[in-house]
Write a structure and sequence with these properties.
With 80 residues, the protein is α+β, with helices and mostly antiparallel strands. Helix content is 61%, strand content 16%. Helix 1 packs antiparallel against helix 2.
Length: 80
C-alpha cells in the first residue's frame, strides 16, 4: 500500500480526499478488519452512522476484490 495524493473533494472543497494504491492482499486484510469491526460494534443509536459507514466500506472493498478476481480468472483463461 502506498499514498498517492491528497486533493479537495469535488462536492465540498474543505474536505480532503486521500488516494491510496492497494494490492489484493491489503484489500483482503482491510475487508476482514472492517467486517470484524462491524460485527463487534454495539447496536446503539449513536453508533448507526459508523455502522452504516463500515457497511459501505465493506461493500466497496468486496466489489473491488470480486471484480479483480473475475478479471484475473478471465486473463488466466485467455492466456491458456
Amino acid at each position: 500500500m502506498r499514498f498517492i495524493q491528497k486533493r479537495p473533494s469535488g462536492k465540498d472543497k474543505d474536505i480532503p480526499v486521500f488516494e491510496f494504491a492497494f494490492g489484493a492482499v491489503e484489500i483482503k486484510l482491510l475487508l476482514g478488519v472492517c467486517k470484524t469491526a462491524r460485527k463487534n460494534l454495539p447496536d446503539m443509536l449513536d453508533k448507526y452512522p459508523m455502522r452504516s459507514r463500515l457497511s459501505n466500506i465493506i461493500k466497496i472493498l468486496q466489489n473491488t476484490l470480486e471484480e479483480y478476481n473475475k478479471n484475473e480468472t478471465k486473463e488466466k483463461a485467455e492466456s491458456n
